[in-house]
Amino acid sequence: MANTIWTIEEFTCAGCSMNYTATREEHAEAHSGTFKCSICSGVVHTWSGKHHFFGWEAVKTKPPVFGRRWAGAGG
Ligand SMILES: [Zn+2]
């Protein structure tokens, strides 16, 4: 079997700041491709060369904390 080198890389969508991870696989032949954000359809990453990216996954980040601003001084 040929040696296969996989590395996980992380990308951030420039459009909506969504984070994604993808597995980069080294190849002996050139590949090219594009991954588009599933949320805003912006291009997250474009690649070409002797590697390929697959297994794109959105990174589940903690939801923003909407501070507990219970002013309690209702009106
Ligand atoms: Zn996006």
Walk me through this protein's architecture:
This protein is mainly beta and 75 residues long. Helices cover 0% and strands 55% of the residues. Strands 1-2-3 form a 3-stranded antiparallel beta sheet, with no helix packed on it. It starts with 5 loop residues before the first strand and ends in a 17-residue tail after the last strand. The model has no long low-confidence stretch (mean pLDDT 87). Zinc ion (ZN) binds at residues 13, 15-16, 18, 37, 39-40, 42.
Strand content: over 45%
- The gyration radius over C-alpha positions equals 19 Å
The helix-strand sequence is: EEE
Task: Name the shape in a single word.
Answer: elongated
Mean pLDDT: 87
What is the total number of structural domains?
A: 1
Main β sheet profile: 3 strands, antiparallel
Span from first to last CA?
72 Å
Alpha-beta content class: mainly beta
- Poorly predicted ranges: none
Q: Which strand order spans the largest sheet, edge to edge or round the barrel?
A: 1-2-3
How would you briefly describe this protein structure?
This protein is mainly beta. Helix content is 0%, strand content 55%. It has one domain.
